[in-house]
């Protein structure tokens, strides 16, 4: 990798914050050309710990400018960029009024009743979320954490069949105020898949789900209605929550990589298993 000289003079146009976002197209009247210097010899210490930034500090007019997205990660914040409004969102991961401690073991119990996946907008970005309509509206905790919302101190409910934790909409609003996630009207997909960005894998997974929406076994017509498909920690493994004739099931799907002649990868369904999660498990 080519080293950046200690005093690299550069010309930059527009904003001086290295955000890792695309520049987009700007009107001429908002552009300003300036001379600045990259200082790879500058050290950055966050909360007493030396950190190594991939993008070095930039010096302009005796003022230091740091890459906001990279630095925010060390400060426990999340940065989002909205191209349409040219807006950078820097979001704290916890509301100042939210309690930092709470009972983490005593959960109220609730069951899947009317679960559905929905894309939600939150502070400049859109996220997938599993929502369950039971005695009230519940949001799945792993989805809230993906948004950068910390859930310490919130009262939680544990879903009986999946064991996943949720917080109620009322509890979330108490913790984060009026900045709760809202329904997205710009992003819609009949199958919501979380954690996977590879377009080739997404295509194979969606084809598999579509194949088993309606099918026939021994002249019996069956239909699997998808709820949500989550990428699991194990590579190429996914957890698929669905209903079959009104009954809740969880299927584990794995993908097999296939090396193509040009060196790129394609994928096929390696295996799938289906578990009736509503049947109580018997301990031997």
TrEMBL record:
Pfam families according to UniProt: Cu_amine_oxidN1
Family annotation (InterPro entries): Cu_amine_oxidase-like_N, Mao_N_sf
Name of protein: Copper amine oxidase-like N-terminal domain-containing protein
Domain Copper amine oxidase-like N-terminal: 45-90
Species: Paenibacillus pectinilyticus
């Amino acid at each position: 990798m080519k080293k950046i000289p200690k005093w690299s003079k550069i010309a930059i146009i527009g904003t001086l914050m290295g955000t890792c976002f695309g520049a987009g197209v700007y009107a001429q009247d908002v552009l300003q050309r300036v001379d600045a210097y990259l200082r790879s010899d500058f050290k950055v210490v966050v909360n007493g710990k030396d950190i190594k930034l991939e993008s070095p500090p930039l010096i302009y007019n005796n003022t230091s400018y740091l890459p906001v997205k990279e630095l925010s990660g060390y400060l426990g914040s999340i940065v989002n960029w909205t191209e349409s409004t040219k807006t950078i969102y820097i979001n704290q991961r916890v509301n100042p009024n939210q309690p930092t401690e709470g009972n983490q073991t005593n959960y109220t119990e609730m069951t899947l009743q009317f679960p559905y996946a929905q894309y939600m907008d939150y502070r400049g970005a859109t996220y997938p979320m599993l929502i369950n309509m039971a005695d009230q509206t519940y949001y799945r905790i792993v989805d809230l954490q993906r948004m950068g919302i910390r859930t310490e101190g919130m009262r939680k409910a544990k879903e009986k069949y999946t064991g996943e934790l949720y917080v109620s909409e009322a509890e979330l609003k108490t913790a984060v105020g009026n900045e709760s996630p809202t329904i997205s009207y710009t992003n819609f997909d009949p199958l919501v898949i979380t954690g996977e960005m590879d377009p080739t894998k997404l295509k194979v997974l969606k084809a598999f789900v579509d194949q088993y929406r309606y099918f026939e076994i021994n002249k019996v017509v069956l239909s699997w209605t998808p709820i949500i498909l989550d990428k699991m920690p194990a590579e190429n493994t996914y957890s698929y929550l669905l209903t079959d004739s009104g009954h809740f099931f969880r299927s584990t799907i794995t993908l097999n990589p296939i090396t193509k002649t040009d060196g790129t990868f394609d994928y096929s369904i390696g295996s799938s298993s289906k578990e009736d999660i509503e049947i109580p498990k018997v301990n031997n």
